[in-house]
Write a structure and sequence with these properties.
single chain, Beta-lactamase, 7-stranded antiparallel β-sheet, 10 helices, 19 strands, globular
């Protein structure tokens, strides 16, 4: 996600593979094999209904939703306007949206192409491939694989990643060399989401291939997969510029258009633009184990490797695969990635066991982030439903306190939005409070484990939090946030 968002309630996809001792597992109501033609036939009408609600209540100006199943696109539809003032509707086939950090999946694909070519090893030190040096301020070196699961141990800094005009653009290598984040922990220890780490991976691709990163991705991913609208280049030109959906903010009840966002300085981390059909073809390639319409992008064994969990912050919650976030460990396993720029909110979800996937991108006010998340949860809950975990009436130490996210700067005082306050609300009940006043209610399902109480939503998914770690270093993790954790500070 290009721009950091600190949400205490963490709306994402839930459920875990294995639970802590004596904790009953969530009930999986239907397995991967239970997808029926009837469910898929009704899905367009279902998505239309949810989107009507999001447009009415979630400040959504425009959106595209694309669904693939069985090796083909089964749904691709635009909603709202690409240009509100000129009343230009979203064209599902032509309108470009900004996938934000979903762009990272292209970068990891490019990196794994270089691994297959023998030019990169995941077990090599990152410094081997650079023309500058990441300082050796920790006892262990950063390996290439640490970039893929966001465990290099960098602090998170946002200075300079967004440009006001093309005149502010800095070549990728120069920007990375001049903006090395402080190493605040040993590599391989915990995931803390890093745009810098992904940009570094893209620069490695550029260095070992001898091709500028945007050229490389076009020649080796977008062109073979026939993704004509997709590009990492900024600003857009020609038909891409003409078909680009505008970004918006909501002021006094009106959508106000914003300038095209420029993330050139860290382009491999999130500067892509693409249409729904472009993203559909990428999903179909992944679900086809690296091949689409005769074009092979990666070997099947490489695609299968990319789905495997590489690291998890909490012992019984989903973690990070090789570049993909694990959204659900089983019943069925789901992987994907979210993306948030200042103006666009996107999500890609893949269910390889069933050959199913979907992509959502929305623009509008801040509420469009919630709109994207609610739609993704609605689709998952409809096709792959779960049941709430049984409530637990045992006794355990209270986890009450203030917890601070590990994705932040460490050279400056922490900001209030970095913190979540956990308050005991009764026996086996908690309330979580964020700095913006958002609260959520949680009920205990096992030792150190709680499930979010939500309005009735058939099929879930149901958000889980886990308190873990030694007494001197207590941590809080959300099932929907494998990319970060929160640490008790008081």
């Amino acid at each position: 996600m290009v721009r950091a968002r600190w949400f205490a309630t963490a709306h994402g996809v839930a459920l875990a593979l294995a639970l802590v001792s004596a904790v009953p597992a969530p009930v999986v109501a239907k397995s991967a094999a239970s997808l029926s033609s009837g469910q898929l036939a009704d899905l367009p009408a279902f998505i239309d209904g949810v989107m009507a609600q999001q447009i009415a209540t979630r400040e959504v100006a425009g959106a595209v939703v694309t669904v693939v199943s069985g090796g083909r696109v089964i749904f691709n539809k635009g909603y709202g306007f690409a240009d509100v003032d000129r009343r230009i509707p979203v064209d599902a086939n032509k309108t470009l949206f900004r996938p934000g950090s979903v762009s990272k999946l292209f970068t990891w694909t490019a990196l794994m192409q270089q691994v297959e070519a023998g030019r990169v090893s995941l077990d090599d030190e990152v410094n081997k491939y650079l023309d500058f040096r990441i300082p050796d301020t920790q006892s262990r070196p950063i390996l290439v694989r640490h970039l893929m699961d966001h465990t290099p141990g960098f602090e998170d800094r946002s200075a300079g990643i967004m440009s006001k005009t093309p005149a502010d653009f800095v070549p990728l290598g120069e920007f990375l060399k001049a903006n090395i984040p402080t190493r605040v922990r040993e590599p391989g220890i915990e995931s803390s989401y890093s745009n810098y780490a992904t940009a570094l991976a893209g620069y490695i691709v550029e260095r070992v291939s001898g091709e500028p990163f945007p050229d490389y991705v076009e020649r080796h991913i977008f062109q073979p997969l026939k993704m004509p609208g997709a590009t990492f280049r900024e600003p857009l030109t020609g038909s891409r510029a003409e078909n680009m959906a505008l970004g918006y903010e909501l002021k006094d009840g009106r959508f106000i258009a914003r300038p095209f966002e420029l993330y050139h300085n860290i382009m491999p981390a999130g500067s892509a633009s693409a249409t729904g059909p472009d993203m559909a073809r990428f999903m179909l390639m992944h679900l086809g184990d690296g091949k689409l319409d005769g074009a092979r992008i990666l070997q099947a064994k490489t695609m299968q490797q990319m789905r495997q969990t590489l690291h998890r912050n909490a012992p019984s919650l989903p973690g990070f695969a090789h570049g993909y976030m694990v959204l659900r460990d089983e019943g069925p396993r789901m992987i994907g990635h979210g993306g948030n720029t200042a103006d666009f909110h996107s999500m890609m979800v893949l269910v390889p066991e069933t050959g199913f996937g979907f992509y959502i991108s929305m623009t509008g006010g801040n509420g469009s982030y919630g709109g994207r998340t609610e739609l993704q949860n609605a689709i998952i809950g409809r096709l792959f439903p779960t049941a709430p975990a049984p409530r637990w009436a045992g006794t355990s130490a209270s986890p009450a306190g203030t917890y601070r996210i590990n994705r932040r700067t460490y050279s400056e005082p922490p900001l209030p939005q970095h913190d979540i306050k956990v308050v005991a609300a009764g026996p086996n009940e908690l309330v979580l409070q964020s700095a913006d006043g958002t609260t959520s209610f949680w009920e205990q399902t096992g030792p150190d484990r709680y499930e979010k109480v939500t309005a009735m939503r058939a099929g879930g998914p149901f958000e889980t939090i886990l308190f873990h770690g030694p007494e001197e270093d207590r941590r809080l993790s959300f099932s929907s946030q494998p990319h970060v954790l929160y640490r008790l500070v008081r």
